[in-house]
Amino acid sequence: MKQRTGGELLVEALECHGAERVFCVPGESYLAVLDALYDADIAVTVCRQEGGAAMMADTYGKLTGKPGICMVTRGPGATNAAAGVHVAAQDSTPMILFIGQIERGMREREAFQEVDYRQMFGGIAKWVAEIDQADRVPEFISRAWHVATSGRPGPVVLALPEDMLVETAAVAQPEPWRQVETHPGLTLMADLQKRLWAAERPIAILGGSRWTAEAVAAFARVAERFDLPVACSFRRQMLFDNLHPNYAGDVGIGINPKLAERIKASDLILLVGGRLSEMPSQSYSLVNIPEPDQALVHVHPDAEELGRVYRPTLAIHASPAAFCKAAEGLQPPAELKGAGAAAKAHEDYLAWSGARPETPGDLQMSGVMDWIETNLPDDAIFTNGAGNYATWLHRFHRFRRYGTQAAPTSGSMGYGLPAAVAAKLTFPDRPVVCFAGDGCLQMTMQEFGTACQEEAAIIVLVIDNGMYGTIRMHQERTYPRRPSATKLVNPDFAALARSYGAHAETVEKTADFGPAFERALASGKPALLHLKLDPEAITPARSLSQIRAEAEAR
């Protein structure tokens, strides 16, 4: 074995474990790694800000199930990247963040940009470490891959001392990473079958990560066999075909009231992969803590999540992929006690999501969504960040296939644009559409430059109402007629996009949207459509004035 630098060993390890792309902002603290990447068969995406780079890595992890790789420099680079690490933590996404670090001999002096990363990321990452010796690089990278992907996936943070990266060592690489799988026991599956036979009002809720297209298809077959209503957790709607006759809707913000009541009234909840945290549980109101009123069968790949909040009637320690494969062996009874419930639940979903409310202004988002539903293929990928604008996508779009949604369950603003860039680079032959509010977009607008540099032909829909709309809505509910710190004076987003060399148009009327979208798609370039929305059109159900009037009437 020949001597290689720590930087060379690191890049060699990335290749060994199948890394396809690195999202980064360069820094002098890891020059040796950047130099090693020059000769590697790994694509490098140069981002504009570390938060955007980390969100791109998270998106790659979401859509592939493999760790997204992000590299940033020390100090400010790491603090910027923390936003994406938090997304990966709450969204259970495999990701590895590499941070250039000060030289080992300078520790504890508050050297230039020195940060204790174990302390900084200890509360949000699955594992935080510093590689002190070049000969241990293969060991640490192998462990990082396994920690990021096993159990409940999440982010790993590895600091790279600058002098370690130029230190040499002769060391072998381990075998490539393989997914550590957790399978359900036969006794547990037999128990589940008996409970499904006995249930009169069962419902399944799908969420979390560790899913595959095969698992999604397998669970659909199980749902059909047991006539089981199936809901998807917050921003996990791609886990079940929304037009399947068993689909009951999404358990997220602005839940269909009939779906909420169905969950409360159920006698069996089959929770697969998710945690039923604050947003899907409607602030922990759908299911009692710690003892649910309903029988709860909780399937999760991490044993520590079973019983952490809700005491399950039956706990199944298994990944969604392994569980769904095993569940195909379950047999229904001769006569289902809850027969017909799935059809009624789907009927309620269609009525809820099919209503097209008219809102104030010349641009109707319902019309925009109608055009999208009619004209885009089922494999189109949709991304978004946080804000009221996302309601239009979550409530009115029919997700049909796995791998078509990238959105932060953590509610992070600014996520949609970098997510769209990563999605398009990962799946270049599929349409990628980013939904972003005017406030949300400006959190990471600089990554539009990354899209243009990479020639990633995403289409960004900027839904501009001139304010931080979600906060303004809450202000009017709680402090009517006292708006504070929510007004935005925005740029001409289309002109800004054109300055990057992109295709861009401004849309102010519903009828203009379709032709503008078609021109954007035909351009073959990154594109932005600036949708000017009336500020009164704050939600599909109520205008800003109506929300204010209701608050004043209380």
UniProtKB/TrEMBL annotation:
tRNA processing among keywords: no
CDD domains for this protein: TPP_enzymes, TPP_PYR_POX_like
Source superkingdom: Bacteria
Gene3D superfamilies the record matches: 3.40.50.970, TPP-binding domain (3.40.50.1220)
InterPro entries the UniProt entry points to: DHS-like_NAD/FAD-binding_dom, THDP-binding, Thiamin_PyroP_enz_cen_dom, Thiamin_PyroP_enz_TPP-bd_dom, TPP-bd_CS, TPP_enz, TPP_enzyme_TPP-bd
GO cellular component: acetolactate synthase complex
Family to which the UniProt record says this protein belongs: Belongs to the TPP enzyme family.
PANTHER family per record: ACETOLACTATE SYNTHASE LARGE SUBUNIT, THIAMINE PYROPHOSPHATE ENZYMES
The protein's name: Thiamine pyrophosphate-binding protein
Gene source species: Roseibium aggregatum
